[in-house]
Specification:
The protein is an alpha/beta fold. The protein has two domains: 177 residues, Flavin prenyltransferase-like (Rossmann fold, 3-Layer(aba) Sandwich); 214 residues, CoaB-like (Rossmann fold). The protein is built from 15 helices and 19 strands. The strands form five sheets. Strands 12-11-8-13-16-17-18-19 form an eight-stranded mixed β-sheet, sandwiched between helices. It has a five-stranded parallel β-sheet with strand order 2-1-3-4-5, sandwiched between helices. A two-stranded antiparallel sheet has the order 6-7. It starts with 7 loop residues before the first strand and ends with a helix. The protein binds cytidine-5'-triphosphate (CTP).
């Protein structure tokens, strides 16, 4: 997916061992459709060569403020005005200090200072030793550059090139790509607190066995990511799945439908949107055995009795905040046939303003899907696409309905 199509980025490298990650970053950015102009400080050229960065970006690298290739000999002006954003990765402690002071005696800090601040955002991906990161001078400088309008991305934690372990590693290239995509996403859900359920539930039979289903959680996780990128504060209540938590999303892991209900009821108090994508088990064993159920050698089989699980979506949709229009509820319907008819009936039954239908067996575990949106106005299809694209489209659809319906 060309998620950065049409974007022109200046990628600035200052001196740090993390320069090796910037080679991979250029590849990911260009694969995502961006054009990338690399600018390196002299220190950066000690860690990776301009030749490598030129080959990967397809453009000659700038390292010198006196670069005579520019007709007007003003590389700092030209480069900073062409860019949709400037990303400094790695951004060294020294470079942060230079930005904080407004220094401009070499090309990269010069072009950062010369950028039109209101239309060319500056993003920083710090990279340094943990002691340098924790030093009050660095933190003071970071606070200053953030106040001056730069967006400071986080740092990773872990083993550092120097052999120490702690905070200060540069984010991985894939994380930086995601951060840039998020940065450019329109903030349709700014100010919203979105609560999402995802994945299957697991209903215990005994301590080693249980009943679950084939839901992968992919749709719910994709919606969590898209909602976060659109500016929402996102809480994801996830059944047992092994998917990575999208950046910036708060995740609460649960097992059973009852666990999920408890977590959701707690979190729903502060939410403004609830999206139920979880494939909650309809029934659970009436009694989970405390010990493993053993064969007794007679060939007889155990008999399991079931009780119905609470309907989480219906419970939330009936809550006073939902009924007062302060919590917008979105349900999903996994059907195997007659999608429009079944999903419309489900919307009424669950009492939700928006219900999203899909054909369950065709989508479980897959990376793509097709959705049918049903609300009081009628229905609309989101044709087959990746769950990522559908999640982004759904977020826009929900945001549009919120502006119509939500009361403060
Ligand atoms: N749901 C829920 N709690 C349940 C069952 C379902 O919150 N105990 C939510 C799902 O997350 C989904 C919607 O309700 O958003 C519909 O789920 P689905 O399984 O399609 O519907 P059911 O209510 O189980 O109806 P049926 O099995 O009869 O189709």
């Amino acid at each position: 997916m060309m998620e950065l199509a049409g974007k022109h980025l200046v990628l600035g490298l200052s001196g740090g061992i993390a320069c090796y990650k910037s080679a991979e970053l250029v590849r990911l950015l260009t694969q995502a459709g961006a054009s990338v102009q690399v600018v390196m400080t002299e220190a950066a050229t000690q860690f990776i060569t301009p030749t490598t960065m030129q080959a990967l970006s397809g453009r000659a690298v700038y390292t010198d403020q006196w670069d005579a290739r520019e007709g007007n000999n003003m590389a700092h002006i030209n480069l900073s005005r062409e860019a949709d954003a400037i990303l400094i990765a790695p951004c060294s402690a020294d470079f942060i200090a230079r930005l904080a002071q407004g220094r401009s005696d070499e090309l990269l800090s010069l072009l950062c200072l010369a950028r039109p601040t209101e239309r060319v955002p500056l993003l920083l991906a710090p990279a340094m030793n943990r002691e340098m990161w924790a030093h009050p001078a660095t933190q003071r400088n970071l606070a200053q550059v953030a106040q001056d309008g730069a967006t400071v991305l986080g740092v990773g934690c872990g083993a550092q090139a120097c052999g120490e372990v702690g905070d200060g590693r540069m984010l991985e290239a894939a994380e930086l790509l995601q951060a840039l995509i998020a940065f450019f996403t329109p903030k349709h859900l700014a100010g919203q607190r979105v609560l999402i359920t995802a994945g299957p539930t697991f209903e215990a039979i005994d301590p080693v066995r249980g009943i679950t289903n084939l839901s992968s959680g992919k749709m719910g996780f994709a919606i969590a990511r898209a909602a976060q990128e659109a500016g929402a504060e996102v809480t994801l209540v996830a059944g047992p799945v092994h998917l990575p938590t999208p950046p910036g999303v708060r995740r609460i892991n649960v097992q059973s439908a009852q666990n999920m209900l408890a977590a959701v009821e707690e979190q729903a108090r502060a939410a403004t949107v609830f999206i139920a994508t979880a494939a909650v088990a309809d029934w659970r064993p009436a009694q989970a055995a405390a010990q493993k159920i053993k064969k007794d050698g007679s060939g007889s089989t155990p008999t399991l009795a079931f009780v119905e699980n609470p309907d989480i979506l219906a419970a939330v949709a009936q809550s006073p905040r939902a009924r007062a229009g302060q919590l917008y509820c979105v349900g999903f319907a996994a059907e195997s046939e007659n999608l429009l008819q079944h999903a419309s009936a489900k919307r009424q039954r669950k009492g939700v303003p928006l219900l999203v239908g899909n054909i369950g067996p065709a989508t479980f575990g897959q990376d793509d899907n097709a959705l049918l949106l049903i609300d009081a106005q009628g229905h609309r299809e989101l044709p087959r696409a990746s769950k990522r694209v559908l999640a982004q489209q759904l977020v826009v659809e929900i945001a549009r309905r919120l502006t119509r319906t939500q009361t403060p």
